[in-house]
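Problem: given the chain below (505 residues), write out its structure.
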Amino acid sequence: MSKKKKTVVETDADVILIGAGIMSATLGLLLKELDPSLSIEIYERLDIAAAESSDAWNNAGTGHSAFCELNYTPQKKDGSVDVKKAVQIAESFEVSKQFWAYFVEKNILSDPYLFIRNIPHLSFVWGKKNVEFLKTRFSSLQQCNLFKDMEYTEEPALIQEWTPLVMEGRSKKDKVAATKMDLGTDVNFGSLTREMFSYLSKQSNVTLHFNHEIRELDKMDNGDWKVTVKDLESKKKRKRLAKFVFIGAGGGSLPLLEKSDIPEGKGFGGFPVSGQWLKCTNEEVIARHHAKVYGKAAVGAPPMSVPHLDTRIINGKQALLFGPYAGFSTKFLKNGSFLDLPLSIKFNNIRPMVSAGLKNIDLTKYLIEQIRQSPEDRFEALKEYLPNAEFKDWELEYAGQRVQVIKKKKSGGGILEFGTEVVSAADGSIAALLGASPGASTAVSIMLDLLERCFKSKLQTSEWQAKIKAMIPTYGQNLADNNELCEQTRKHTSAVLKLNSLVEG
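Solution.
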């Protein structure tokens, strides 16, 4: 018997979104609000939205606002602290909060408690050199409106009030310091993403397909994209035609960008880093910690591995995590293939990847050390932040995969980036998001940047401008330089998102 031919169906869509994570959800919501007539198709290879990087267990969930993450404020050789990135991230997170508040007010996002809670953000260090760094960081950040409510102390008694578990059992000889921002948040990006997709999937001309994998991306002569999709259940392949394609597949974005074959995507590589948490199982300990406490990363550690003792709200229940501990896998996704890394190596990115590898020997050594850690080693790292911790109260939980971006330099070499990168075609017909932290928290700002690249003519119309300013009232303005606007904005978003009281244990 001859094999039955697989059905091929061709349809048209204005927009195809690849990956059902926070990035695609944000872009889909933005576009549908700006132009309700748009037809949008969303494809996800798993059977549920937000199961990879956006999932609560796979994402730091900090509500990255640079209040406590010390890696966003590097110290220069002269001892000063560079706060430029921290200011940018803090501003971007305020944009995200405005966007979410708008959809809460429209009853599109139902209860903000399902995805965002008010939890103080603390930075905590010990040792003379680190204390001097934190004091300098605090002084530098105080010059910006976004951080003016930050508190600083070197008093052990006050730090014990802020975070008692961190100070209990600690030697009184230790020189310590901490900063605190009560405005900090915990965000469950998995819950947020799924609610966004739940709304989108009910809109006209929007279809959400799970268990579908993108196999090919081909540019048509008329400028549209032909997208070959495989239904993983029926095994049938389909072809979709779209005017615009967004690749928001987390770690899976790089291989798909390579399939698009656009010149702008040449020379990019990816370096995968996996993670693990220690999860507290003692309810009494969990109930006594109400903060996100971030410390300094080890030399060579990637940003996703900055150690923190972290209060989280997952599925409505308070949790306590410590980590993450970094690891290495050749997978680009938690549910990916061990062939992901080798298959991503192409002629055009070999040199940048080798060059970046040679320049990051410290990172390689760090990852090897992390992989070789025993349970006892991981517990000793926890005890630096929680001196009275007991081994029996903690268990290992596997986090997600992150793929750090390797960019080609003009010289032909490569550089390892620890942020996010939007790569788009010159004609704006396709764009991909590469990289990791602080991605989810700054998703709205990243997608606005994408609109400026790929929907420039529409974005300049008075209709789109008015709609964006309705969603984000401070659009086009700078909160960092406008104290009154910053206060008004935070007061409004805090009221709408119910961020006026700390999390309850």
